[in-house]
Design goal:
Oligomer: homodimer
Subunit structure (chains A, B): Homodimer.
Function (chains A, B): Cleaves C-terminal amino acids linked to proline in peptides such as angiotensin II, III and des-Arg9-bradykinin. This cleavage occurs at acidic pH, but enzymatic activity is retained with some substrates at neutral pH.
Catalytic activity (chains A, B): Cleavage of a -Pro-|-Xaa bond to release a C-terminal amino acid
Keywords (chains A, B): Carboxypeptidase, Disulfide bond, Glycoprotein, Hydrolase, Lysosome, Protease, Signal, Zymogen
Number of helices of chain A: 13
Structural class of chain A: alpha/beta
Pfam families (chains A, B): Peptidase_S28
Strand content of chain A: 5-15%
Largest sheet of chain A: 7 strands, mixed
């Protein structure tokens, strides 16, 4: 296979469980994948994927960009798994037991793991001591890549932060932008599409009093809806489905969150052309649409409200992170978007977090720690954004300085630029990748100059 | 008095005890002092003292520089106390009970407190929202000032790091430099001085078998020496005394660590002119020398081996910090210095730490986290160093970039530049202070330009 550990790296690194305190002194095994086929000692670099909330092998397989440019950068590829995800569980199968065991799941601890791992690699692989490292990540991993450069500029010379909503915090951006972008995606993917979804919420409301059985049957649910909570979950599940499809609205068949056809939002909108249908007919169409997302392969015998994406994504860990640091205010008004009106209610959010995990979120900690909008003192970060990606609303979409640059990919969904080259790629993503490579090479050249020509 | 809280600031800020984890969600009361007599809304700045290991009122009284320049900068002065010192005890009088309670004593937590405090001030004092903040600190507080700018450049526009040995870690500098500088101070302060101290160690060795009582009596010790451990402590106490005197070798009478005459090393060396004396005579002179440090006022009825400095300094907390993050390797060889040969023995150090605090030091964490010698990506930090200061061996003594600058004060001891102007100040410290003000004004001008003239 493409992964193989270089000599001496047979043993995994064992970062401490708590980088920021000394009472907990144990270590854990962190998984990472490494590919050095294209590595050249004298000219090479390390492209370091800052793993996010999921199985690292799955991310490695969905980050073709790094494989595509490995040769051009004479690069070692490293994919580092984020603690508490995949196989990198600090307390094994007890890691998720309670708030005490989860206490070391944070972006700061993850970044420290990455820093320690890179030093371990440089100390272990002969010839890498002075090799420049570039951080690459998407989504939360993109935030981590950007923050890694901000907090550890001595370890990475730059970062490619793809679809990284580093401003989706506190009141840095309007809370409604996310759902607005989802809605726009559906609006431009077929006449009547967003209106049909908009109308579906009232249709469900009218039907639940008498038609729970019909609804469960029509949507082929694995567990039939019975209680009010079931119905709330059903509506949340529908909302989540539209969000996920918008995020993975790629121009070709792909299986990231689920196996899907090319341009899945368009495929879904084919079923949602008539927003004026009677409730049952409209909801049957909604089912057809949803069924594209959950059953494109045709293998699903029923639809499961609790399994909305690939199991490789660590939704449970992310739910904890969202209840601590990663508080991303969202709201919908039903006017500028196709969703039910829902205000951002921090108090209710905090209560739910306390019930679920025994912790209280700290909504202003991320901006305080990572700088919010005031990041111009940093350098060498590319923020790329997909125009179709709901997360672009919280992203950096304009250049901040000459070395903190934004790239827009109007036809791109969630970190399309990090995926493998494809004949179906829109021009905008090809240009984005060229520009990304261009900036990364600039950093390397500048680094080279600094190294070889001191005053 | 000079300190007064501006309106609305009557309530102290209450930072969380653990910024980096969510299981411990309690807060504590952090003390800070504030003086706004010279504050001018439109042109002003905030000079923020990053408190180090001790009582903040004591530091405020020994940081006359800030008071001297307050008017020139139209500045609010803020002196923030470091958690676990002075009155800022996270768990009250239980804060030092065990490793569990001490778990939140670290530089990272302290910096986060400072960040949160500054945001609290800006949110509370009308007109300060956009006021630029400059961090100022000395010694460990100087390291904190530098690290604060490195990690939170969105909060402070620059830092004055006085006598900050940010490189006294791992193997960034030779472990012998510290004792070598102490020795040089004594060497140039009187003929025979360093040789007398050098010879004293063997004299003590020869005398302890039969002369413990004589030694205890001669040195007027409060508790007479009895065991081997007592003798070890006695030698350590002597060593510590020489170090402390070198650190506070100021050109005028001062009472920082202890009340002392002007140029105390010279005053001490007056008693240490003859290194060839017989043991008892030589040690009687050593006592006279030591007595200058411990009893310049003449009020001490006996000398106490366990009280080496003012009680305002939190030696206990520092001992914990030295056993966790702040591992500063030191060694002496008895050839290049006047001390007994002592190798740096990390294993023994770690064992002692485990016995004393139940924790193991992590010697490479500080360089990993704060960058070691590779800090050129940062900006706007002044590193000032005293030529007489043993800590200058671990300091930044050469410019790194145009905005990471070093200032040397050949006649200066430990952060002399942060002390009040004095008619006895050597020219070099006056020049240093002018240069510091010059750089601080440059940062403010540049910040102003960025704020008012975007592209």
């Amino acid at each position: 296979g493409p992964f193989r550990p270089p000599r001496g790296l047979e043993k995994p690194p064992e970062p401490v469980i708590d980088h920021f305190g000394f009472a907990e002194d144990r270590t854990f095994k962190q998984r990472y994948l490494i590919a050095d086929q294209h590595w050249k000692k004298d000219t090479g670099s390390i492209l370091f994927y800052t793993g996010n909330e999921g199985d690292i092998a799955w991310f490695a397989n969905n980050t073709g960009f790094m494989w595509n440019v490995a040769e051009e950068f004479d690069a070692i590829l490293v994919f580092a798994e984020h603690r508490y995800y995949g196989d990198s569980l600090p307390f094994g199968n007890k890691s998720y037991t309670d708030a005490k065991h989860l206490n070391y799941l944070s972006s700061q601890q993850a970044l420290a793991d990455f820093a320690v791992l890179i030093q371990h690699l440089k100390n272990t692989i002969p010839g890498t001591e002075n090799t420049p490292v570039i951080a690459i990540g998407g989504s939360y991993g993109g935030m981590l890549a950007a923050w890694f450069r901000m907090k550890y500029p001595h370890i990475v010379i730059g970062a490619l932060a793809a679809s990284a909503p580093i401003w989706q915090f506190d009141s840095l951006v309007p809370c409604g932008s996310f759902y607005k972008i989802v809605t726009e995606d559906f609006k431009k993917s077929g006449a009547g599409c967003s209106e049909t979804i908009q109308n579906s919420w009232a249709a469900i409301k009218r039907i639940v009093d008498t038609g729970l059985q019909w609804l469960s049957h029509t949507f082929r649910l694995c567990s039939p809806l019975k209680t009010k909570t079931d119905v709330i979950n059903f509506r949340e599940w529908l909302r989540g489905t539209w969000i996920y499809v918008a995020m993975v609205d790629y121009p070709y068949e792909a299986a990231f969150l689920q196996p899907l056809p090319a341009w899945p939002v368009k495929a879904i909108c084919k079923y949602l052309k008539n927003p004026k249908l009677p409730d049952r007919l409209l909801l049957q169409n909604i089912f057809q649409a949803v069924n594209i997302y959950y059953n494109y392969t045709g293998h699903a015998s029923c639809l499961n409200l609790t399994q909305t994406t690939t199991k490789s994504l660590g939704l449970r860990g992310w739910s904890y992170q969202a209840c601590t640091e990663m508080v991303m205010p969202m709201c919908s008004d039903g006017i500028n978007d196709m969703f039910e009106p829902q205000k951002w209610d921090f108090h209710a959010y905090s209560e739910e977090c306390f019930k679920a995990w025994g912790v209280r979120p700290r909504p202003s900690w991320i901006p305080t720690f990572y700088g919010g909008k005031n990041i111009s003192a940093h350098s060498n970060i590319i923020f790329s954004n997909g125009g179709l990606d709901p997360w672009s609303g919280g992203g950096v979409t304009k250049n901040i300085t000459d070395t903190l640059v934004a790239i827009m990919i109007p036809e791109g969904a969630h970190h399309l630029d990090l995926r493998s080259n494809s004949p179906f790629d829109p021009t905008s993503v090809l240009q984005a990748r060229l520009l990304e490579v261009h900036y990364m090479k600039l950093w390397l050249q500048k680094h080279e100059r600094v190294k070889t020509c001191p005053k």
